[in-house]
């Protein structure tokens, strides 16, 4: 008896084609609950990128009143405690500020908590203090206590910080830390881009006289400079060497920096450290002066220029 063989299956069956799910998926998308969730998500995105941002206050406009604030920090440990010396410095700042409608912040180094860092760091905290006290000022000029403003006719905002003046005076493609730093000042910087001006002397960057444009960048810069890591690091020249480090290795700072000729606002009393003061210069600093009664002491160096600035201011 013969049985019929079942039909042989094709050895090359057609490829498997999964059942299409497009229509069911689309139908699920059209469910009311799904539509509501998607709508809420879209509304949230719109709110996130438009509605919420409109509630954020735009960057505050600085009125420029006063145009400049002069900051000087007094440290009795470095000037020998002469009341006459102290008063002459204060009087110098106040007369100059009064003539041009500037503000002043004349403070004691002991008024700031530096957590064990050298008192010279107080220049940074005082400058930050000035920004808080004079939020609408346009520029802040930190000027070391061992110095006099000598030319009462010069306005900082025009003579030093004016856009055209900056472009004419900034030293481009200059090693930031002389003589051979591979990091150099920008060659394409415009005057309106400058937020910080410094000078160099024979030892490098001078932190005894600097000018900064008030604003968000200034806050960032000062907070960076005042970072606890820099204050705790054993730099030989404390905040000055910290500043040299920052301007070399932080492009965000270097891109806003201009180095100007020293005599514009940071002349020295003697040639040992840098460019010497000449009649007509804005300011003179008694670089390297010492306390006490020894040679090159600060009080005696100041006396060389005291009558000059008083005479200049009397006829201004």
Describe the overall structure.
The chain contains twelve helices and nine strands. The protein has one domain: Spore Coat Polysaccharide Biosynthesis Protein SpsA, Chain A (Alpha-Beta Complex), CATH 3.90.550. The longest helix has 24 residues. The chain starts with 21 loop residues before the first helix and ends with a helix. It has 316 residues and is α/β, with parallel strands linked by helices. Helix 4 packs parallel to helix 12 and helix 5 runs antiparallel to helix 8. The protein is 40% helix and 14% strand. The strands form two sheets. Strands 2-1-3-6-5-7 form a six-stranded mixed beta sheet, with helices on both faces. The protein has a three-stranded mixed beta sheet with strand order 4-9-8. InterPro entries: Glyco_trans_34, Nucleotide-diphossugar_trans. One of its GO terms (biological process) is protein N-linked glycosylation. Belongs to the glycosyltransferase 34 family. Keywords: Glycosyltransferase, Transferase.
Q: Runs with pLDDT <50, length 5+?
A: 1-11, 18-23, 25-29, 43-57
Radius of gyration: 32 Å
CATH architecture: Alpha-Beta Complex
How many structural domains? Answer: 1
What are the secondary-structure elements, in order, as H or E?
A: HHEHHEHEEHHEEHHHHEEEH
Helical proportion, percent range: 25-40%
Supply the CATH superfamily name: Spore Coat Polysaccharide Biosynthesis Protein SpsA, Chain A
Measured by DSSP, the beta-strand proportion falls in 5-15%
How many distinct helices?
12
Q: Based on Cα principal axes, name the global outline.
A: globular
Determine the mean pLDDT.
85
Total number of beta strands? 9
Distance between the termini: 137 Å
Structural class: alpha/beta
Sheet having the most strands: 6 strands, mixed
CATH topology: Spore Coat Polysaccharide Biosynthesis Protein SpsA, Chain A
> At the first level of CATH, what is the class?
Alpha Beta
Please give the order of strands in the largest beta sheet: 2-1-3-6-5-7
């Amino acid at each position: 008896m013969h049985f019929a063989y079942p039909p042989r299956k094709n050895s090359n069956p057609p490829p498997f084609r999964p059942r299409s799910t497009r229509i069911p998926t689309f139908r699920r998308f059209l469910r009311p609950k799904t539509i509501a969730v998607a709508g809420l998500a879209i509304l949230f995105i719109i709110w996130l990128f438009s509605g919420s941002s409109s509630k954020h206050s735009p960057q505050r406009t600085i009125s420029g009143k006063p145009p400049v604030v002069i900051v000087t920090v007094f440290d009795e440990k470095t000037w020998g405690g002469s009341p006459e010396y102290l008063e002459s410095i204060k009087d110098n700042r106040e007369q100059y500020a009064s003539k041009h409608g500037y503000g002043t912040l004349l403070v004691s180094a002991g008024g700031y908590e530096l957590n064990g860092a050298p008192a010279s760091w107080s220049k940074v905290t005082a400058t930050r203090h000035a920004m808080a006290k004079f939020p609408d000022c346009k520029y802040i000029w930190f000027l070391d206590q061992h110095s006099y403003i000598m030319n009462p006719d010069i306005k900082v905002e025009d003579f030093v910080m004016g856009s055209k003046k900056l472009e004419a005076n900034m030293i481009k493609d200059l090693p930031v830390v002389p003589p051979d730093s591979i990091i150099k000042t920008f060659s394409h910087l415009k005057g309106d881009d400058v937020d910080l001006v410094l000078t160099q002397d024979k030892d490098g960057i001078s932190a005894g006289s600097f000018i900064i444009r008030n604003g968000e960048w200034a806050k960032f810069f000062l907070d960076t400079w005042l970072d606890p890591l820099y204050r705790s690091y054993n730099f030989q020249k404390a905040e000055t060497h910290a500043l040299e480090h920052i301007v070399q290795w932080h492009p965000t700072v270097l891109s806003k920096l201009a180095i100007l000729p020293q005599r514009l606002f940071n002349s020295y009393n003697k040639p040992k450290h840098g460019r010497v003061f000449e009649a007509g210069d804005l300011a003179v600093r008694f670089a390297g002066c010492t306390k006490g009664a020894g040679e090159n002491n600060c009080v005696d160096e100041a006396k060389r220029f005291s009558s000059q600035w008083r005479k200049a201011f009397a006829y201004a």
